[in-house]
Amino acid sequence: MHDLALPSSGRASGAGDACLFGLSLCSGAGGLDLGLTIAMPGYRAVGHVERETYAAATLVARMEDASLDQAVVWDDVGTFDGRPWRGAVDIVTAGYPCQPFSVAGKWILRNVATLELFSKCLVN
Questions:
Q1: Taking the model in full, what pTM does it have?
Q2: CA triplet 85, 91, 97: central angle to 5 degrees?
Q3: CA dihedral 18, 20, 21, 23 (to 10 degrees)
Q4: What CA–CA distances, in Å, run from 105 to 27, 97, 114, 121?
Q5: Would you place residue 122 in the very low, low, confident or very high pLDDT band (cuts 50, 70, 90)?
Q6: What is the CA radius of gyration of the chain?
Q7: CB crowding 4-42: b at 16 or more within 10 Å, else e
Q8: Is 26 an annotated catalytic residue?
């Protein structure tokens, strides 16, 4: 957050005509943000938090090809400090970790680390 300056209005710079600013936690490859952009053309994600390297690289690639808006990307929701974003974003989204509940994840509810990760999203 130290290298991102939010203007005095509290809105991220380069926002154009966006009217709903989002912070995306556990972003994955940005599917939720892309869906919000399609459903609400005024939506713009101004920050992402994603720990999986491949997913974060996909976010950057989607920003480079203009499928997603330019935004900063952090790599750890556990150390991410959301306090500076208060008042600067309108919505916080989070991709729910499905591994403990999905057939592909074989309903492994003992995956405590994944559940703890999601709880950090709720606390921050």
A1: 0.70
A2: 100
A3: -140
A4: 19, 10, 11, 21
A5: low
A6: 15
A7: eebeeeebbeeeeebeebbbbbbbbbbebbeebbeeeee
A8: no
Rounded CA-CA distance 21/9 in Å is 13
Give 50-66 pLDDT, tens digit per residue.
988 999 999 999 999 99
Strand partners, 47: 23, 72
Query: Which residue type sits at 67?
Result: S
Element at 55 (helix H, strand E): helix 53-64
Which of 123 and 20 is assigned the larger pLDDT?
20
Copy the structure tokens of residue 4: 């991102």
Find the helix or strand (DSSP H, E) in which 9 lies.
none
Tokens, residue 67: 């499928």
Q: Which residues contact 20 (CB under 8 A, 6 or more apart)?
A: 40, 42, 43, 44, 90, 91
